[in-house]
Each structure stands twice: as C-alpha cells, then as structure tokens.
Structure to design on (124 residues):
C-alpha cells in the first residue's frame, strides 16, 4: 500500500500513512459508494451558449457594437466569419445563429458610422 500523498510504502491494512499522516485510500476497507457520474445533456445549455467560442465572441461583440461602433463591430464581424468557418466541421444551429448576429451587427455598426460621416459631410 503506497501513500497517495507522499508516495511511501505503508502496511497493507494501514488507515493512515506512517510517514506523513495522510489518510490512506485503502481499496479493501473503502466501502464508500461511488457517487453517480453526472451526465450533462448540453442540449438545453446549447440554446443559451453555443460551444463555438468564436460564435460567443461574435454575439457579445455584435451586441456591444450597437453602442461602441466599428471598433467593436469589426472584431464582431471577424469572429462571426471565423465562427461560421469552424462551424463547418461541427455544424451547430445555435453557433450559426450567434455568428450571424455578430456579422449583422458588425456590418450595421459600420454602415451607421459611414452614414453618420456622410450626413455630417453633407451638412457641413
Ligand atoms: Zn504519506
């Protein structure tokens, strides 16, 4: 019986390590029930957050670009395109949805800024 903490050998039936005092995980005396393994079905969570991290970024940056404009809209657009690219390997409906939000809002933030610049030039 080897100690899981210090790695030194102990008596086969020892409860505690004689070297470091750590409680030994004695297989023979360990009759604690093994807790059931929790299997998470990510189908529900999938609707909130896609597994594609680019899609998550595209979504949040896209929403933020409404307030922040192109400095955030451009990375939102980039992340959205990258999300769609990586989505080809693992097709996922929610990551496509989040990616498109990033792309649409990224483009809109740029269009609004261009429109704003154009209007200010015309009115000047
Ligand atoms: Zn030990």
């Amino acid at each position: 019986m080897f100690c899981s903490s210090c790695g030194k050998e102990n008596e086969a039936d020892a409860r505690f390590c004689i070297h470091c005092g750590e409680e030994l995980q004695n297989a023979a005396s360990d009759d604690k029930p093994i807790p059931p393994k929790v299997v998470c079905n990510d189908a529900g969570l999938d609707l909130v957050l896609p597994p594609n991290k680019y899609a998550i970024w595209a979504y949040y940056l896209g929403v933020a670009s409404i307030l922040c404009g192109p400095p955030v809209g451009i990375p939102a657009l980039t992340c959205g395109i990258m999300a769609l690219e990586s989505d080809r390997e693992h097709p996922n409906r929610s990551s496509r949805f989040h990616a498109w939000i990033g792309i649409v809002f990224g483009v809109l933030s740029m269009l609004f800024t261009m429109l704003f610049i154009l209007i200010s030039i015309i009115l000047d």
Notes: Residues 3, 5-6, 8, 17, 19-20, 22 surround zinc ion (CB under 6 Å). The helical segments are 43-46, 53-68, 70-87, 93-123. The radius of gyration is 28 Å. The chain has two domains: 1-39, 45-123.
